[in-house]
User: Fold this.
Amino acid sequence: MIKKWVLIIFFCLLFVLLGGVLFNYFRRDKATTGKSGDQRISLPKPVLSSRISIEQALAQRRSIREYSSEPLTLEEISQLLWAAQGINRPGGYRTAPSAGALYPLEVYLVSNQIDQVPAGFYHYNPEGHAIEQLLRGDFRYELSQAGLNQQAIQNAPAVFLITAIYERTTAKYGPRGRQYVHMEVGSAAQNVYLQAYSLDIGTVFIGAFHDDQVKRLFNLASEEQPLCLLPLGKLN
Ligand SMILES: Cc1cc2nc3c(=O)[nH]c(=O)nc-3n(C[C@H](O)[C@H](O)[C@H](O)COP(=O)(O)O)c2cc1C
Assistant:
């Protein structure tokens, strides 16, 4: 009789344990904050000098929609991600301003041809200066379809996706917080433009895409809003 109860308790515990493991496995890619993926790639430290001055970058910057097929390097991607939302001083402050330092933006990398970065969808972790793979595979075609078939998206060796979680800012500033978030994405994108130009890399701010298709493609949570795509590739 006792043996039977021991067996029942054992199987109940096993079910609970297995349930927990499966639950964590399936929810992993859905998480919006504190994302942790299959594969984590530490990025090289950002370099704080440049071949051109900030004035030259401002004078020469333009939107570029055609790229060389040469792969980007991990150093270049590291530099561009840091320019977008990297940490630049103690206290967790970043390279782009943020209303109340609340940091509503998330930066993702779609890797198509980057040395040492297998094709896939990655989340940028500013605190660790690392990327974490959330999805594997080639998303070029589907992403360009979501972006009204813009060829810059299809042909770029890499694409940044910047999303926002409005709630982080509206919780403090109310409805006006949405405007703040839109201003912030402009700052982050301009940082990428200027950094890209200094590395002989071209980019273009893409705002024309179907939000729902991008959200579905990358399994984004409902409260996360895609705001901008930045294809990136070496200048021809
Ligand atoms: C909010 C916003 C959305 C944009 N969306 C697109 C887009 O979907 N596709 C595109 O090719 N360019 C897009 N652009 C880039 C503009 O077309 C470009 O900045 C403008 O033509 C000025 O050229 P310049 O950036 O070379 O100075 C966008 C720019 C901004 C600021």
